[in-house]
């Protein structure tokens, strides 16, 4: 059975990558901080897209009571997620710390990732 990542989650990942790319282009401390975030975030996103977010594509079918035998294939992904969850949660802490550094660098330059460079 093919599992599909919910579109909203896929778009969120794409938007975050695009925003980080914009921040990297600014250079300086903002760019360096954004590179650090991207370095940590990219492999984490790959894991999420490989086995953490795919099972979420089944939620609407499950909520409607539509269960098929092909859905059992999702167990490989959920078992892997269960095994790797502690590491992924540690990665979340690293991502948050790196984002805090990016935010501090942006505040010093009065830059907002959703706007352009103000100063």
Could you please describe the fold and organization of this structure?
The protein is an all-alpha fold and 119 residues long. It has one domain. It contains four helices and no strands. It is elongated.
Brief description of this entry?
This protein is mainly α. The protein has 4 helices and no strands. The relative contact order is 0.17.
Keywords:
119 residues, single chain
| Share of β-strand residues | under 5%
Domains, number: 1
Largest sheet: none
Write down the overall geometry: elongated
The number of E-state strands comes to 0
Please report the distance between the alpha carbons of the first and last residues.
51 Å
Indicate the low-confidence ranges by residue numbers. none
Rounded to an integer in angstroms, the radius of gyration calculated over CA atoms is 18 Å
Give the fraction of residues assigned to helices: over 70%
Let me know the average pLDDT.
90
* Class based on secondary structure composition and strand pairing: mainly alpha
Number of helices: 4
What is the string of helix and strand elements?
HHHH
């Amino acid at each position: 059975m093919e599992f599909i990542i919910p579109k909203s989650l896929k778009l969120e990942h794409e938007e975050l990558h695009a925003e980080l790319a914009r921040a990297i282009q600014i250079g300086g401390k903002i760019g360096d901080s954004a590179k650090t975030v991207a370095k940590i975030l990219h492999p984490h996103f790959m894991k999420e897209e490989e086995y953490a977010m795919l099972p979420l594509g089944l939620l609407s079918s499950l909520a409607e009571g539509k269960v098929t035998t092909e859905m059992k294939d999702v167990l490989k992904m959920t078992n892997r997620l269960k095994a790797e969850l502690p590491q992924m949660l540690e990665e979340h802490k690293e991502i948050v710390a790196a984002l805090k550094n990016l935010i501090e660098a942006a505040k010093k330059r009065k830059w907002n990732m959703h706007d352009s460079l103000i100063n």
